[in-house]
Amino acid sequence: MLWSKSLETGINLIDEQHKELFRQVDILLDQSNENRHKEALIFLDKYIQKHFSDEQKMQADSKYPKTVQHKKFHDDYVIVFRKLKEKYLKEGPSPANNMEINKTVVGWLKDHILVHDREFATYYKSLK
């Protein structure tokens, strides 16, 4: 999963955290590195929580008008991710599980960054 400049929000903290999320998802998608899959899943679970918390704090501090809706996107994603994580830990890596990770995790991240995070970033940077 490649990071590209088109995914940047222009908020350094958020961009750096997004890059780390992409690096960890890349580990999951790497079939030659199955030993690190469990570590990456556990790391992602914790890191997603930190990232979402940091983002939500920035939104609350800046009085972002869509803070509640954005938090709901995060909460819904945590539920989806945890179900996927449990399935992956139980069944292990497979082409089907990797396709599901690619569709669910990668697709959600890109959509969330390009739409919702970018919208927040525009608002946040307008305050400066």
Written account of the structure:
Helix 1 runs antiparallel to helix 4 (95-126) and helix 3 (67-91) runs antiparallel to helix 4 (95-126). The protein has helices at 12-29, 37-61, 67-91, 95-126. It has one domain (11-126): Hemerythrin-like (Four Helix Bundle (Hemerythrin (Met), subunit A)), CATH 1.20.120.50. It has 4 helices and no strands. The N and C termini lie far apart (32 Å). By secondary structure, the chain is mainly α. The radius of gyration is 15 Å and the shape is elongated. 78% of the residues lie in helices and 0% in strands.
Which helices and strands, and how do they pair?
Layout: H1 12-29, H2 37-61, H3 67-91, H4 95-126
Helix pairs in contact: 1-2, 1-4, 2-3, 3-4
Question: Which descriptors apply to this entry?
Answer:
128 residues, mainly alpha, elongated
Oligomer: single chain
- In round numbers, the mean pLDDT is 88
- Corresponding CATH architecture: Up-down Bundle
Number of helices: 4
Gist of the model:
With 128 residues, this protein is an all-alpha fold. It contains four helices and no strands.
